[in-house]
Specification:
The complex is a heterodimer of chains A (about 450) and B (about 950). Helix content of chain A is about 70%, strand content about 0%. By secondary structure, chain A is mostly helical. With about 950 residues, chain B is α/β, with parallel strands linked by helices. Classes of the chains: A mainly alpha (about 450), B alpha/beta (about 950). At the A-B interface, α5 and α10 of A face β31, α25, α26 and β35 of B.
């Protein structure tokens, strides 16, 4: 294995030709394998069950879910924050690492960006699904109306609406810009109507120098534009909690802590998605241990920050001498939700430590399993924050215990199915590896072999 | 249309289909507003008419005012002119509103389970009476306590038929009545003037809940108020458990079941020695073995000496035992001796114009009627569920032997047999009637609304019966007066000769009008002396073996008569927080020994039978005692009565609510019962404070509060005026606010029911309650801070605090909740999307969310307050300080260019109005002279969770503790 700290030593087979790359990457678009059909079948089943749960909730009210007063938020907001967090890694990998000129991003960034967009689309379901009157959820948007009603811009939920929609818009544009050269490749490899469709998406891309120069400027601009959003969106999501005065939420630590957690879970999710993707589509040449190891290192960094944040929360709670603050933090460890807390600690702080061993972080199975463990841990982290704080609010006479029921689990399944539906569609209509960027890592094709200009 | 091709057709279909789909709103119900075709006289739409009438929920006989809106009574409140309840109304009384609108009410008379007509049913009654007379069988009447003209008509007609009238109350004070007879030779019960007692000792009477009436709350509240009488009463209880009343106690002496009488006698001896008592009871006291009795009870002798010292030094009062007291009569005798020795008779315990018990029978009389059932031709059952309320199957078997049962009943009951003739008599709100539950207090009942069903009052039925049997007019009785045609006329005649004649009034018409307007006529009370004449001490029992069972009445369903009222079950029982079901109070040790978890149920087994109930692990009950709540678990008494619970009367071997031996075993999981209270105590958080009695008036500490521990606030923020980011909201004329005196609060839950009635709060039922969807806007928090001899149970009615800096307002994305110019947190239900962020951010957990649309079954919807919109699923709701009442008051006074005066505000809110101990005061803070402004400045006043800087519009006046101990949960850590 090459020295992975150096970006210059890209772990891509330099024997590949440009044509070969295009063929390899586009191959899955023209075939339909059994794993794909099975995956799609599962997704549709999940959507059907989850859809049935959502319809019940729509007809009978939120009461069909497991909520218990004053635990007014539960699995839905947990899952919302979880998906927003997942949606972090894509833009981070594509934009931030682009600006830092990290070569290892090329193999994974396209799928990671797609993941981001689909994760945000999934997250966006939840604010609507969780409100009491979802048919009125559009009232959250400021639009001119004859009742002259306006929104409350003091509310962090309003900020959320803007943060998430901005992030979604910018991510989508950035994703599309990255795709333009690849759409052109698709146009050239297809025929008839499909070719015309890709052609229109490629907006006349011919790969001229002039186009490349403009393209790279635009790409750099959008990368710079998207980078602060990576930090802002999850900071704002964390303000949903930090701005409330509920004990266990009301903390200035939340924005960095949430951003670190989001990158942690996002990178883990990229590993979870890419390991099977690479194996199924035989893309080991383009996405391999070299990439995964970098992602694992990102996880180690952010996981470390997260563990520090967990410890610091306890320090602050103790140091504050605030009985409510300390009460909730003690409750999380030993109270009704002790199991949630310990799942979180084991999955997020302890299990990923195995990646400190090079053997572990270069083993595909280990990468895959630990990445799933991390995401389980990150889901429970949000559940831990939301459910326990609300179950033990200020007044002990109102304490309760909340557990999600089958309806909420159904909606959780729906969210995963929804996400994977888009992801599965994506791998069949768009190149999941950035063809143009992979080619950048290859020696330029020359008539005479071995005379590559350095 | 011939030109339309397939494409156009699809276009039109698409557009019109989409357009119509967009306009279909499946959620918002369509309602129609229709004007009156012919406007009725006296009704101004939107303006309520209040009728003074009586409450018949229990035998206390309070006066109520019924709020009539567009022909329907929508609210009951206490009659402020009435001397018994002084304007307050208890939880039972307000719940009784649901009797009129019950979905299970009979629509008309029924014969043998079939709908019938009045002519047919009444004809059958007449022929049954004739048949009984001809066959020599008896006519008997068995019913609830009735007094006044309502009783007189029955007595007169049944008497003329040669029948017997037996009126019985399952929770009548039979033991005390017998004791009073034995001790003072008076057939009656004394009045207890709690307001003058510096020491209150209760031996088990649930006198702040189901034992007695609102006068006890009133007196207790006054005795706890340092501003009222210059002292704060100390409340001692001698009881094997802690009831809804005795959790308020300062000191709890946990006597073994059955030894309370012994404790009272020992105490009497100690007090006599202290006071050098030489009165008529002194000869009885010589033989009392103080140490032996104290040892048998297992109470602390030091405490007994302390208590005796207090009783000797100041005015005191000893309350008798309650239903859960073993050997209740001996306890009652012993407490009367104690009161005599302590010099309370004639001072705090008085006789004269007390409960009117002349027409009330003992249970022995009921047994005699039942034993003779085979000889009864016609048995009139007057709203008494004799089968449910008596142990064993005696009553059921007896009723089967009666030739014909005629039941005066509006709703199903266990006591109806297959062949019963059911005559629905209408409810209190629909008929004329009266009571004289307390001698000299004549309360009048007038029809406050038109009857909802095809009913006839029992008085009218009696008159009709007399007429068809040829009784009354023209009879050759010596004092025969012609019977009038209607009960109303009879009532007026009776009042003319029995009330008007005794009064100072001269003009009958004026007198009658004023009686109808004020709700009755109340003679002033004259106290007469009582002579101690007891010859020998009562037997003091007390067994040490086994676990003793004691039953206590539910705070609303009472003896079970209100069990078909959903509010009765939906209101959390104050001590346990339980809704919907029957539970047993067991000790913490017993619960641990049985390995019980929160949602387990237990099986209780006695010699008479066994039932499965939920359980409450009470820190206040002894290991050798189990207490079970009565009043739930009916079989065939209506949809709500039958829904949950079990009838613990089935555990009794005789008509004595305490004394049976019981075994407790673990049994599966409960499906219904659930508590609406979270933690047992306040977990060392500064929520509910106490003030030491000795610190009152010293202004010690911040606001005189001791144990005040707030989380630290950086002083520099205060110095530099940086504590608030936003300016104080503007309140030009009003800043509505509320002060709640926790020292007076008895945890009776009347405020909660009043809130439900006023604000159309949804009843969610047992299943939703189990899932934590209780909708009550007012939580009666109970913090059990102490243990052992000093239980230190603190109440805190918690509702929306109407904060000036409300955490809920800032976070609502659609501005569905905002601060208005009156200082209220207004809530726009229509605008609410249901993000529930406001509720998460409310530190008081005061907001409630409609997880479903909770409907009111037919007839209950007529009871809804038209001034308050009903909420549907997905909407947040909360206490609004009854903004509808505030608006009404404001606009009334604005018409005259005035600001609402304080007098019109203090009791404006239903919760404040219902409160028996007068602990809730409402008013305008902008008026510095208002009562609430003064209370805000009280040394005991504190805002809940002040450190959050929410600036609430509610302040609590801390409970006063007599405890000397500096430790314990003062409210900090």
């Amino acid at each position: 294995m090459a020295n992975t700290n150096s970006n210059s030593e890209a772990k891509v087979d330099t024997e590949l030709s440009y044509g070969q790359v295009t063929s390899d990457v586009l191959a899955p678009l023209f075939t339909m394998g059994k794993p794909y059909m099975a995956g799609m079948g599962l997704v549709l089943l999940g959507l059907a069950y989850g859809g049935w749960c959502i319809i019940q909730q729509l007809v009978w009210g939120l009461g069909v879910a497991g909520y218990s007063q004053p635990d007014f938020w539960g699995l839905y907001i947990t899952t919302f924050v979880f998906w927003v967090g997942i949606g972090h890694a894509g833009t981070l990998i594509s934009a931030v690492l682009f600006l830092f000129r990290s070569k290892w991003r090329t193999g994974v960034y396209r799928a990671a960006e797609a993941m981001t967009i689909f994760a945000v689309m999934t997250a966006a379901l939840f604010p609507a699904l969780h409100v009491g009157r979802m048919w009125n959820a559009y009232w959250l948007f400021p639009y001119p109306n004859q009742r002259q009603l306006w929104q409350n811009f003091k509310s962090p939920l309003m900020w959320d609406v803007f943060a998430v929609s901005t992030y979604f818009t910018v991510s989508t544009i950035f994703f599309y810009i990255g795709l333009i050269p690849d759409f052109a490749a698709m146009r050239d490899r297809t025929r008839g109507v499909i070719s015309k469709m890709y052609g229109s998406l490629a907006i006349g891309w011919r790969g001229t120098d002039r186009q490349w120069r403009h393209y790279m400027a635009a790409y750099g601009f959008f990368a710079a534009f998207a980078t602060p959003l990576v930090l802002s969106v999850h900071s704002i999501v964390s303000w949903d909690f930090a701005m409330a005065q509920t004990a266990g939420w009301h903390s200035t630590l939340f924005p960095p802590y949430f951003v670190a957690g989001a990158i942690f879970s996002g990178c883990a999710m990229v590993i979870t998605l890419m390991v099977p993707l690479s194996a199924i589509f035989k893309w080991e040449k383009y996405i391999n241990v070299w990439h995964f190891e970098h992602l694992a290192k990102m996880c180690l960094l952010t996981g470390g920050i997260l563990t520090y944040a967990y410890l610091m929360e306890y320090f602050i709670a103790w140091y504050s001498d605030n009985p409510y603050e300390w009460g909730i933090f003690a409750f999380r460890v030993v109270g009704d939700y002790w199991w949630v807390f310990w799942i979180m600690v084991v999955c997020n702080c302890i299990v990923p430590l195995i990646w400190w061993f090079k053997k572990a972080r270069t083993n595909l199975w280990c990468l895959f399993i630990v990445s799933i463990v991390i995401n389980i841990g990150m889901w429970f982290e949000r559940f831990n924050i939301i459910a326990s704080s609300l179950a033990h609010q200020f007044d002990p006479a109102a304490w309760t215990y909340y557990l999600p029921n089958y309806i909420e689990i159904g909606v959780l399944i729906f969210s995963f199915s929804w996400f994977f539906l888009w992801f599965l569609l994506f791998v069949k209509v768009m190149p999941s590896v950035a063809i143009a960027e992979v080619k950048e890592l290859l020696p330029p094709p020359l008539k005479q072999k071995g005379v590559a200009a350095k | 249309m011939a030109d339309m091709n397939r494409r156009d057709f699809l276009k039109v279909l698409g557009i019109s289909g989409t357009a119509s789909a967009c306009t279909i709103d499946p959620v918002t119900p369509i309602e129609k507003v229709l004007p009156y075709v012919v406007t009725p006289d006296q009704i101004i739409p939107g303006v309520a008419t209040w009728f003074a009438t009586q409450c018949t929920a229990c035998p206390v006989g309070c006066g109520v005012v019924a709020k009539n809106r567009e022909g329907r009574i929508i609210m009951l409140e206490g009659n402020r002119e009435h001397p018994t309840n002084n304007g307050s109304l208890c939880a039972k009384g307000i719940t009784d509103l649901q009797a009129t609108y019950s979905p299970d009410r009979f629509t008309g008379p029924m014969v043998a389970g079939q709908d019938s007509t009045w002519d047919d049913a009444f004809g059958k009654v007449v022929s049954a009476v004739k048949a009984a007379q001809s066959s020599g069988k008896k006519i008997a009447w068995l019913g609830r306590e009735r007094t006044g003209a309502t009783a007189a008509i029955t007595d007169q007609v049944i008497g003329a038929l040669g029948g017997s009238v037996t009126r019985w109350e399952p929770l009548g004070k039979e033991a005390l009545r017998k004791a009073t007879k034995a001790v003072f030779g008076i057939d009656g019960v004394p009045s207890y003037a709690l307001s003058q007692a510096e020491t209150i000792i209760s031996f088990g009477a649930d006198f702040l809940s189901t034992w007695g009436g609102p006068d006890h709350h009133h007196g207790y509240g006054q005795s706890r108020d340092p501003d009222h009488c210059g002292f704060v009463s100390q409340f001692w209880v001698v009881e094997p458990r802690l009831s809804n009343t005795s959790v308020n106690a300062d000191i709890h002496l946990s006597a073994a079941p059955g030894t309370e009488a012994g404790v009272a006698l020992a105490l009497a001896k100690l007090v006599a020695d202290e006071r050098k008592y030489s009165g008529p009871a002194s000869s009885l006291l010589t033989d009392i073995d103080v140490d032996g009795l104290i040892a048998a009870a297992g109470v602390s002798k030091d405490r007994m000496i302390e208590l005796a010292g207090r009783m000797a030094a100041n005015m005191s009062i000893a309350m008798p035992g309650g239903t859960a007291t073993v050997n209740e009569e001996a306890v009652a005798v012993a407490t009367l001796i104690l009161n005599e020795v302590a010099g309370n008779i004639g001072e705090t315990v008085t006789f004269g114009q007390d409960a009117n018990l002349a027409g009330v029978s003992y249970y022995a009389d009921v047994e005699a009627v039942l034993a003779d059932a085979a000889n009864i031709g016609v048995l009139f059952l007057d709203e008494l569920d004799i089968v449910y309320t008596t142990p064993g199957s005696t009553a059921k078997d007896a009723l089967a032997l009666v030739a014909q049962i005629v039941a005066f009943q509006n709703e199903p009951s266990e006591s109806l047999t297959e062949s019963s003739i059911v005559l629905p008599t209408g409810t209190t709100l629909e008929n004329w009637g009266d009571n004289e539950s307390i001698m000299g207090r004549h309360t009048l009942q007038q029809p406050a609304m038109k009857g909802l069903k095809n009913t006839r009052g029992s008085g009218d039925i009696m008159l009709a019966l007399a007429k068809s049997l040829g009784l009354g007019a023209g009879d050759d009785d010596e004092e025969a007066t012609p019977l009038p045609d209607t009960f109303q006329a009879f009532l007026m005649d009776w009042w003319k000769s029995n009330v008007f004649a005794k009064s100072d009034a001269t003009d009958w018409d004026v007198f009658w009008r004023s009686a109808v307007q004020t709700g009755g006529h109340f003679f002033s009370r004259d106290v007469h002396s009582a002579t101690f004449q007891l010859a020998s001490l009562p037997e003091v029992g007390g067994t040490t073996d086994g676990v003793t069972l004691g039953l206590f009445p539910h705070h609303i369903t009472y003896d079970g008569r209100h069990a078909n009222r959903p509010w009765a079950h939906e209101m959390p029982e104050p001590v346990t927080g339980f809704v919907w079901g029957t539970w047993a109070e067991i000790s913490l040790a017993t619960a641990e020994k049985l390995g019980l978890e929160e949602d387990d149920k237990v099986t209780l087994t006695t010699a008479a039978g066994s039932i499965d109930v939920g359980f409450f692990p009470s820190p206040g009950i002894r290991d050798d005692m189990v207490a079970v709540v009565m009043g739930n678990g009916h079989e065939g008494a209506g949809r709500y009565a039958d829904l949950t619970g079990a009838n613990p009367v089935r555990l009794l071997t005789s008509m004595s609510y305490a004394g049976d031996k019981v075994t407790v075993t673990k049994a599966g999981k409960t499906t219904h019962i659930s508590t609406q209270l979270g933690n047992i105590d306040q977990d060392n958080r500064p929520i509910n404070y106490i003030v030491k009695a000795k610190d009152i008036g010293t202004g010690k500490g911040p606001g005189g509060l001791v144990h005040l521990h707030h989380p630290p606030i950086d002083e520099r923020l205060i110095e530099n005026n940086l504590l608030d980011m936003y300016p104080e909201p503007e309140h030009p004329t009003y800043r509505f606010a509320m002060a709640i005196d926790l020292n007076k609060c008895t945890g009776c839950a009347a405020c909660q029911v009043a809130c439900y009635a006023e604000n159309n709060i949804g009843v969610v039922g047992p299943e939703q309650n189990r899932r934590g969807r209780h909708m009550g806007w007012m939580r009666l928090s109970r913090y059990w801070e102490g243990s052992g001899e000093e239980p230190d149970v603190r109440w805190q009615p918690t509702m929306c605090q109407q904060c000036s800096h409300a955490p809920c307002e800032g976070v609502c994305p659609v501005l569905a909740t905002y601060h208005n110019l009156d200082g209220l947190n207004a809530m726009i239900y229509n605008r609410c999307v249901g993000t529930r962020y406001c509720a998460n951010n409310c530190p008081y957990s005061a907001r409630r969310f409609n997880y479903h649309t909770y409907d009111w079954p037919e007839a209950f919807h007529m009871m809804l307050n038209p001034d308050v919109m009903t909420r549907t699923m997905g909407v947040m709701e909360k206490c609004t300080f009854c903004v509808q009442r505030i608006r009404e008051a404001k606009s009334d006074y604005r018409d005259h260019g005035q600001v609402v005066p304080d007098a019109a505000l203090t009791k404006l809110l239903p919760c404040a109005s219902a409160c028996g101990s007068d602990c809730i005061t409402f008013g305008n803070l902008k008026d510095p002279e208002s009562e609430v402004s003064k209370k805000f400045e009280n040394e005991r006043a504190y805002p809940m969770l002040a450190e959050l800087n929410t600036k609430p519009g509610v302040r609590y006046l801390a409970r006063i503790s007599h405890s000397e101990a500096e430790t314990g949960h003062g409210g900090g850590h």
